[in-house]
Amino acid sequence: MAGIYIHIPFCKQACHYCNFHFSTSLKLKNDLIKALLIEIELQKDYLDGEKIETLYFGGGTPSLLSADEFNLIVDKIHQYFNLDAEIEFTIEANPDDLSLQKIKTYKNQTAINRFSLGVQSFLQADLEYMNRAHNSQQATDSIKMIQDAGFSNISIDLIYGTPTLSDEDWLINLHKTFQFEIPHISAYALTVEPNTALEHLIKNGKSEVVSDAKSRDQMLLLMNVCDDNDYKQYEVSNFAKDGLFAKHNSNYWLNKKYLGIGPSAHSFNQNSRQWNIANNVKYIKAINEGSIPFEKELLDEKQRYNEYIMIALRTHWGVNLENLRETYGFQQFKSFCSEIEKYQLEGKITISGDQVLLTQSGILEADRIASDLFLV
Ligand code: SF4
Protein backbone atom coordinates (compact mmCIF):
# COMPACT_ATOMS: atom_id res chain seq x y z
CA MET A 1 0.00 0.00 0.00
CA ALA A 2 1.10 3.60 -0.53
CA GLY A 3 0.50 7.14 0.71
CA ILE A 4 -0.47 10.53 -0.68
CA TYR A 5 0.73 13.82 0.79
CA ILE A 6 -0.83 17.18 -0.14
CA HIS A 7 1.16 20.33 0.64
CA ILE A 8 -0.81 23.46 1.57
CA PRO A 9 1.83 26.21 1.38
CA PHE A 10 0.25 29.00 3.42
CA CYS A 11 0.73 30.16 7.01
CA LYS A 12 -0.68 33.11 8.94
CA GLN A 13 2.67 33.96 10.47
CA ALA A 14 6.28 32.76 10.02
CA CYS A 15 7.66 30.81 12.98
CA HIS A 16 11.26 31.84 13.63
CA TYR A 17 12.75 28.36 13.29
CA CYS A 18 10.82 27.21 10.21
CA ASN A 19 12.41 26.36 6.87
CA PHE A 20 9.42 24.67 5.23
CA HIS A 21 7.94 26.11 2.08
CA PHE A 22 5.04 28.48 2.77
CA SER A 23 3.75 31.95 2.03
CA THR A 24 2.12 34.30 4.55
CA SER A 25 -0.01 35.79 1.78
CA LEU A 26 -3.21 33.86 1.04
CA LYS A 27 -3.74 35.72 -2.26
CA LEU A 28 -3.02 32.63 -4.37
CA LYS A 29 -5.00 30.15 -2.30
CA ASN A 30 -7.77 29.56 -4.84
CA ASP A 31 -5.36 29.31 -7.78
CA LEU A 32 -3.23 26.91 -5.79
CA ILE A 33 -6.19 24.64 -5.01
CA LYS A 34 -7.11 24.57 -8.72
CA ALA A 35 -3.49 23.63 -9.54
CA LEU A 36 -3.54 20.83 -6.94
CA LEU A 37 -6.60 19.37 -8.67
CA ILE A 38 -4.79 19.40 -12.00
CA GLU A 39 -1.63 17.88 -10.55
CA ILE A 40 -3.61 15.01 -8.98
CA GLU A 41 -4.79 14.05 -12.47
CA LEU A 42 -1.32 14.50 -14.00
CA GLN A 43 0.18 12.20 -11.35
CA LYS A 44 -2.50 9.52 -11.57
CA ASP A 45 -0.08 6.75 -12.68
CA TYR A 46 2.78 7.55 -10.28
CA LEU A 47 1.80 4.90 -7.71
CA ASP A 48 1.08 2.16 -10.30
CA GLY A 49 -2.44 1.59 -9.03
CA GLU A 50 -1.35 0.71 -5.48
CA LYS A 51 -3.99 1.10 -2.83
CA ILE A 52 -3.72 4.26 -0.71
CA GLU A 53 -3.67 3.65 3.05
CA THR A 54 -2.79 7.16 4.18
CA LEU A 55 -3.76 10.60 3.01
CA TYR A 56 -1.97 13.48 4.72
CA PHE A 57 -2.55 17.21 4.35
CA GLY A 58 0.58 18.99 5.58
CA GLY A 59 2.17 22.37 5.17
CA GLY A 60 2.17 25.15 5.72
CA THR A 61 -1.16 25.13 7.44
CA PRO A 62 -3.90 22.90 5.99
CA SER A 63 -6.33 24.04 8.70
CA LEU A 64 -6.63 27.25 6.69
CA LEU A 65 -8.82 25.22 4.28
CA SER A 66 -12.58 24.89 4.65
CA ALA A 67 -14.38 21.54 4.67
CA ASP A 68 -15.56 22.23 1.10
CA GLU A 69 -12.01 22.85 -0.06
CA PHE A 70 -10.85 19.57 1.48
CA ASN A 71 -13.71 17.74 -0.17
CA LEU A 72 -12.90 19.21 -3.57
CA ILE A 73 -9.34 17.86 -3.32
CA VAL A 74 -10.32 14.50 -1.82
CA ASP A 75 -13.02 13.92 -4.47
CA LYS A 76 -10.38 14.43 -7.13
CA ILE A 77 -8.08 11.93 -5.42
CA HIS A 78 -10.97 9.43 -5.30
CA GLN A 79 -11.41 9.85 -9.04
CA TYR A 80 -7.87 8.71 -9.85
CA PHE A 81 -6.66 6.61 -6.91
CA ASN A 82 -7.89 3.55 -5.07
CA LEU A 83 -8.38 4.49 -1.41
CA ASP A 84 -8.39 1.78 1.26
CA ALA A 85 -11.59 1.57 3.32
CA GLU A 86 -9.49 1.93 6.51
CA ILE A 87 -7.57 4.94 5.22
CA GLU A 88 -5.84 7.21 7.75
CA PHE A 89 -6.74 10.76 6.77
CA THR A 90 -4.67 13.31 8.69
CA ILE A 91 -4.86 17.07 8.71
CA GLU A 92 -2.12 19.21 10.21
CA ALA A 93 -3.68 22.06 12.16
CA ASN A 94 -2.55 25.08 14.13
CA PRO A 95 -4.36 25.92 17.38
CA ASP A 96 -5.17 29.51 16.33
CA ASP A 97 -7.12 28.36 13.25
CA LEU A 98 -9.56 26.20 15.10
CA SER A 99 -13.01 26.81 16.56
CA LEU A 100 -15.42 24.16 17.81
CA GLN A 101 -17.73 24.96 14.90
CA LYS A 102 -14.94 24.54 12.34
CA ILE A 103 -13.78 21.22 13.80
CA LYS A 104 -17.36 19.92 13.93
CA THR A 105 -17.75 20.83 10.27
CA TYR A 106 -14.57 18.87 9.46
CA LYS A 107 -15.98 15.95 11.48
CA ASN A 108 -19.44 15.99 9.90
CA GLN A 109 -18.65 16.98 6.36
CA THR A 110 -15.23 15.47 5.55
CA ALA A 111 -13.50 12.07 5.91
CA ILE A 112 -10.74 13.50 8.14
CA ASN A 113 -10.12 11.00 10.96
CA ARG A 114 -6.84 12.18 12.49
CA PHE A 115 -5.50 15.53 13.70
CA SER A 116 -1.83 16.45 13.91
CA LEU A 117 -1.79 19.60 16.02
CA GLY A 118 1.15 22.03 15.98
CA VAL A 119 1.17 22.81 19.70
CA GLN A 120 4.99 22.95 20.09
CA SER A 121 4.64 24.15 23.71
CA PHE A 122 1.96 24.97 26.27
CA LEU A 123 4.14 27.73 27.73
CA GLN A 124 3.63 31.34 26.66
CA ALA A 125 7.31 32.40 26.85
CA ASP A 126 8.27 29.47 24.68
CA LEU A 127 5.57 30.18 22.09
CA GLU A 128 6.66 33.81 21.90
CA TYR A 129 10.31 32.79 21.50
CA MET A 130 9.32 30.61 18.53
CA ASN A 131 7.00 33.31 17.15
CA ARG A 132 4.08 30.93 17.01
CA ALA A 133 0.73 32.48 16.03
CA HIS A 134 -1.10 30.89 18.99
CA ASN A 135 -0.91 31.46 22.72
CA SER A 136 -0.81 29.07 25.62
CA GLN A 137 -4.59 29.21 26.19
CA GLN A 138 -5.29 28.40 22.53
CA ALA A 139 -2.95 25.41 22.76
CA THR A 140 -5.06 23.77 25.48
CA ASP A 141 -8.42 25.00 24.16
CA SER A 142 -7.78 23.57 20.71
CA ILE A 143 -7.09 20.09 22.11
CA LYS A 144 -10.29 20.18 24.15
CA MET A 145 -12.28 21.30 21.10
CA ILE A 146 -10.83 18.55 18.88
CA GLN A 147 -11.74 15.97 21.51
CA ASP A 148 -15.18 17.49 22.14
CA ALA A 149 -15.92 17.31 18.42
CA GLY A 150 -15.33 13.56 18.59
CA PHE A 151 -11.78 13.05 17.30
CA SER A 152 -9.64 10.69 19.38
CA ASN A 153 -6.81 9.93 16.95
CA ILE A 154 -4.69 12.99 17.72
CA SER A 155 -1.00 13.68 17.49
CA ILE A 156 0.68 16.76 18.86
CA ASP A 157 4.02 18.25 17.87
CA LEU A 158 6.27 19.46 20.67
CA ILE A 159 9.62 21.22 20.52
CA TYR A 160 12.31 20.96 23.19
CA GLY A 161 15.78 22.46 23.60
CA THR A 162 14.62 26.08 23.30
CA PRO A 163 16.47 28.59 25.52
CA THR A 164 13.12 29.43 27.14
CA LEU A 165 12.35 25.83 28.19
CA SER A 166 13.79 24.56 31.47
CA ASP A 167 13.73 20.85 32.27
CA GLU A 168 10.82 21.53 34.67
CA ASP A 169 8.94 23.32 31.87
CA TRP A 170 9.57 20.38 29.56
CA LEU A 171 8.06 18.03 32.12
CA ILE A 172 5.04 20.36 32.42
CA ASN A 173 4.53 20.17 28.63
CA LEU A 174 4.79 16.38 28.63
CA HIS A 175 2.50 15.87 31.61
CA LYS A 176 -0.11 18.15 30.09
CA THR A 177 0.01 15.99 26.98
CA PHE A 178 -0.48 12.84 29.05
CA GLN A 179 -3.37 14.44 30.98
CA PHE A 180 -5.17 15.05 27.70
CA GLU A 181 -4.59 11.39 26.80
CA ILE A 182 -3.09 12.33 23.47
CA PRO A 183 -2.16 8.99 21.87
CA HIS A 184 0.67 10.20 19.62
CA ILE A 185 3.52 12.66 20.16
CA SER A 186 6.07 13.93 17.65
CA ALA A 187 8.82 15.70 19.60
CA TYR A 188 11.72 17.48 17.95
CA ALA A 189 14.79 19.25 19.25
CA LEU A 190 14.90 22.86 18.11
CA THR A 191 17.42 23.11 15.28
CA VAL A 192 18.78 26.30 13.77
CA GLU A 193 18.24 25.92 10.02
CA PRO A 194 20.08 28.10 7.50
CA ASN A 195 18.34 31.27 6.33
CA THR A 196 15.72 31.27 9.07
CA ALA A 197 14.81 34.19 11.30
CA LEU A 198 16.20 32.21 14.21
CA GLU A 199 19.61 31.91 12.59
CA HIS A 200 19.57 35.65 11.94
CA LEU A 201 18.53 36.49 15.51
CA ILE A 202 21.28 34.30 16.98
CA LYS A 203 23.92 35.77 14.65
CA ASN A 204 22.90 39.26 15.75
CA GLY A 205 22.99 38.37 19.42
CA LYS A 206 19.22 38.85 19.76
CA SER A 207 18.55 35.25 20.71
CA GLU A 208 20.44 32.87 22.93
CA VAL A 209 22.40 30.09 21.22
CA VAL A 210 20.61 26.75 21.21
CA SER A 211 22.51 24.27 23.38
CA ASP A 212 23.15 20.71 22.12
CA ALA A 213 23.74 19.51 25.68
CA LYS A 214 20.36 20.85 26.78
CA SER A 215 18.61 19.21 23.82
CA ARG A 216 20.29 15.93 24.61
CA ASP A 217 19.26 16.08 28.29
CA GLN A 218 15.69 16.96 27.38
CA MET A 219 15.55 14.14 24.85
CA LEU A 220 16.62 11.70 27.55
CA LEU A 221 13.93 13.11 29.81
CA LEU A 222 11.40 12.69 27.00
CA MET A 223 12.32 9.05 26.41
CA ASN A 224 12.14 8.15 30.10
CA VAL A 225 8.88 9.96 30.82
CA CYS A 226 7.17 8.58 27.70
CA ASP A 227 8.29 5.09 28.63
CA ASP A 228 6.90 5.54 32.17
CA ASN A 229 3.57 6.56 30.62
CA ASP A 230 3.36 3.59 28.21
CA TYR A 231 4.22 5.39 25.01
CA LYS A 232 6.24 3.34 22.55
CA GLN A 233 9.13 5.19 20.93
CA TYR A 234 8.63 3.71 17.48
CA GLU A 235 10.96 6.23 15.85
CA VAL A 236 13.56 8.56 17.37
CA SER A 237 11.13 11.52 17.43
CA ASN A 238 7.79 9.69 17.53
CA PHE A 239 5.95 8.13 20.44
CA ALA A 240 2.58 6.41 20.44
CA LYS A 241 0.22 4.37 22.52
CA ASP A 242 -0.10 0.79 21.29
CA GLY A 243 -1.70 0.40 17.89
CA LEU A 244 -1.74 4.13 17.21
CA PHE A 245 1.48 4.48 15.25
CA ALA A 246 0.91 6.95 12.41
CA LYS A 247 0.43 5.10 9.12
CA HIS A 248 1.68 8.20 7.33
CA ASN A 249 4.99 8.37 9.21
CA SER A 250 5.42 4.58 9.23
CA ASN A 251 5.02 4.47 5.45
CA TYR A 252 8.13 6.63 5.03
CA TRP A 253 10.14 4.51 7.41
CA LEU A 254 9.00 1.19 5.94
CA ASN A 255 10.19 2.29 2.49
CA LYS A 256 6.70 2.34 0.94
CA LYS A 257 5.80 4.46 -2.08
CA TYR A 258 4.29 7.90 -1.64
CA LEU A 259 3.15 10.68 -3.89
CA GLY A 260 3.50 14.33 -2.90
CA ILE A 261 1.19 16.89 -4.51
CA GLY A 262 1.77 20.64 -4.35
CA PRO A 263 4.75 23.01 -4.29
CA SER A 264 7.83 21.53 -2.57
CA ALA A 265 6.11 18.14 -2.06
CA HIS A 266 8.36 15.06 -2.34
CA SER A 267 7.51 11.73 -3.95
CA PHE A 268 9.21 8.33 -3.78
CA ASN A 269 8.59 5.20 -5.85
CA GLN A 270 11.37 2.97 -4.44
CA ASN A 271 13.67 3.69 -7.41
CA SER A 272 13.77 7.47 -7.42
CA ARG A 273 12.83 10.53 -5.45
CA GLN A 274 11.40 13.69 -6.89
CA TRP A 275 10.40 17.02 -5.46
CA ASN A 276 8.24 19.78 -6.84
CA ILE A 277 9.43 23.35 -7.17
CA ALA A 278 9.17 25.30 -3.89
CA ASN A 279 7.58 28.40 -5.41
CA ASN A 280 3.82 28.95 -5.51
CA VAL A 281 3.75 31.23 -8.55
CA LYS A 282 6.02 29.04 -10.69
CA TYR A 283 4.21 25.89 -9.56
CA ILE A 284 0.79 27.23 -10.52
CA LYS A 285 2.04 28.52 -13.87
CA ALA A 286 3.70 25.23 -14.85
CA ILE A 287 0.74 23.12 -13.77
CA ASN A 288 -1.66 25.34 -15.71
CA GLU A 289 0.53 24.74 -18.77
CA GLY A 290 0.18 20.98 -18.21
CA SER A 291 3.62 20.13 -16.81
CA ILE A 292 4.76 19.20 -13.31
CA PRO A 293 7.74 21.33 -12.25
CA PHE A 294 9.98 18.84 -10.42
CA GLU A 295 13.54 17.63 -10.04
CA LYS A 296 14.36 13.96 -9.80
CA GLU A 297 17.11 11.80 -8.39
CA LEU A 298 17.55 8.14 -9.35
CA LEU A 299 18.73 6.15 -6.35
CA ASP A 300 21.69 3.84 -6.95
CA GLU A 301 22.42 0.83 -4.74
CA LYS A 302 24.74 2.76 -2.44
CA GLN A 303 22.14 5.50 -1.84
CA ARG A 304 19.41 2.92 -1.24
CA TYR A 305 21.63 1.10 1.26
CA ASN A 306 22.55 4.30 3.13
CA GLU A 307 18.93 5.44 3.26
CA TYR A 308 17.83 2.06 4.55
CA ILE A 309 20.45 2.10 7.33
CA MET A 310 19.67 5.70 8.28
CA ILE A 311 15.90 5.27 8.37
CA ALA A 312 15.67 1.72 9.77
CA LEU A 313 18.10 2.38 12.62
CA ARG A 314 15.91 5.28 13.81
CA THR A 315 12.86 3.00 14.15
CA HIS A 316 11.81 0.29 16.57
CA TRP A 317 11.75 -2.14 13.62
CA GLY A 318 15.51 -1.66 13.28
CA VAL A 319 17.75 -2.98 10.50
CA ASN A 320 16.62 -6.45 9.47
CA LEU A 321 19.67 -8.66 8.92
CA GLU A 322 17.95 -11.14 6.64
CA ASN A 323 16.59 -8.34 4.50
CA LEU A 324 20.05 -6.75 4.39
CA ARG A 325 21.68 -10.02 3.24
CA GLU A 326 19.03 -10.72 0.61
CA THR A 327 18.99 -7.19 -0.79
CA TYR A 328 22.66 -6.18 -0.61
CA GLY A 329 24.52 -9.54 -0.68
CA PHE A 330 26.59 -11.58 1.74
CA GLN A 331 29.73 -9.40 1.61
CA GLN A 332 27.80 -6.26 2.58
CA PHE A 333 25.95 -8.16 5.28
CA LYS A 334 29.27 -9.40 6.73
CA SER A 335 30.87 -5.97 6.71
CA PHE A 336 27.78 -4.43 8.39
CA CYS A 337 27.93 -7.09 11.13
CA SER A 338 31.58 -6.38 11.82
CA GLU A 339 31.07 -2.58 11.77
CA ILE A 340 28.33 -2.71 14.41
CA GLU A 341 30.45 -4.78 16.82
CA LYS A 342 32.05 -1.73 18.41
CA TYR A 343 28.62 -0.19 19.06
CA GLN A 344 27.44 -3.44 20.60
CA LEU A 345 30.43 -3.37 22.94
CA GLU A 346 29.65 0.26 23.84
CA GLY A 347 26.03 -0.73 24.58
CA LYS A 348 24.64 1.49 21.82
CA ILE A 349 23.38 -1.26 19.54
CA THR A 350 21.67 -4.50 20.45
CA ILE A 351 20.56 -7.46 18.33
CA SER A 352 17.26 -9.21 18.89
CA GLY A 353 16.72 -12.15 16.53
CA ASP A 354 17.25 -10.65 13.09
CA GLN A 355 16.73 -7.06 14.22
CA VAL A 356 19.58 -4.61 14.84
CA LEU A 357 18.33 -1.91 17.20
CA LEU A 358 19.67 1.20 18.88
CA THR A 359 19.61 1.19 22.67
CA GLN A 360 18.60 4.34 24.57
CA SER A 361 22.18 5.66 24.58
CA GLY A 362 22.42 4.76 20.89
CA ILE A 363 19.27 6.73 20.10
CA LEU A 364 20.93 9.87 21.52
CA GLU A 365 23.58 9.48 18.79
CA ALA A 366 21.38 7.98 16.08
CA ASP A 367 22.54 10.21 13.23
CA ARG A 368 26.23 9.83 13.98
CA ILE A 369 26.03 6.04 14.29
CA ALA A 370 24.04 5.74 11.06
CA SER A 371 26.49 7.90 9.14
CA ASP A 372 29.42 5.83 10.47
CA LEU A 373 27.75 2.79 8.94
CA PHE A 374 27.18 4.38 5.52
CA LEU A 375 28.87 3.19 2.36
CA VAL A 376 31.13 5.91 1.00
S1 SF4 B 1 3.02 27.07 11.12
FE1 SF4 B 1 4.37 25.34 10.60
S2 SF4 B 1 4.85 25.57 8.42
FE2 SF4 B 1 3.98 27.54 9.15
S3 SF4 B 1 5.76 28.79 9.67
FE3 SF4 B 1 5.12 27.76 11.56
S4 SF4 B 1 6.30 25.84 11.62
FE4 SF4 B 1 6.45 26.65 9.53
Tell how many strands the DSSP assignment holds: 15
Structural class: alpha/beta
End-to-end distance, in Å?
32 Å
Using the CA coordinates, give the radius of gyration. Answer: 21 Å
**How many helices does DSSP assign?**
15
CATH class of the largest domain: Alpha Beta
Task: Assign the CATH architecture of the largest domain.
Answer: Alpha-Beta Barrel
Low-confidence stretches: none
Order of secondary-structure elements: EHEHEHEHHEHEHHEEHEEEHEHEHHEEHH
> If you average the pLDDT, what whole number results?
96
Strand order of the largest sheet: 7-8-6-5-4-3-2-1-9
Total domains: 2
Quaternary status of these chains?
single chain
- According to CATH, the fold-level topology of the largest domain is TIM Barrel
% residues in beta strands: 15-25%
For the largest beta-sheet, the strand count, sense and barrel status come to: 9 strands, mixed
The proportion of residues forming helix, as a percent range, comes to 40-55%
General form: globular
Structure characterization notes:
This protein is an alpha/beta fold and 376 residues long. It folds into two domains: 2-253, Aldolase class I (TIM Barrel, Alpha-Beta Barrel); 301-372, Arc Repressor Mutant, subunit A (Orthogonal Bundle), CATH 1.10.10. The protein contains 15 helices and 15 strands. The chain has helices at residues 29-42, 67-80, 100-109, 124-130, 136-148, 167-179, 197-203, 212-228, 247-253, 280-288, 301-313, 321-328, 330-345, 360-363, 366-372; strands at residues 2-8, 52-59, 83-93, 114-120, 154-160, 184-189, 232-235, 238-240, 258-261, 266-268, 272-276, 294-298, 319-320, 349-352, 355-358. It has a nine-stranded mixed beta sheet, with helices on both faces. Strand 7 and strand 8 form a beta hairpin. The longest helix is centred in the middle third of the chain and has 17 residues, at 212-228. The radius of gyration is 21 Å and the shape is globular. The relative contact order is 0.12. Residues 11, 14-15, 18, 20, 22, 59-61, 94, 118 line the site of iron/sulfur cluster.
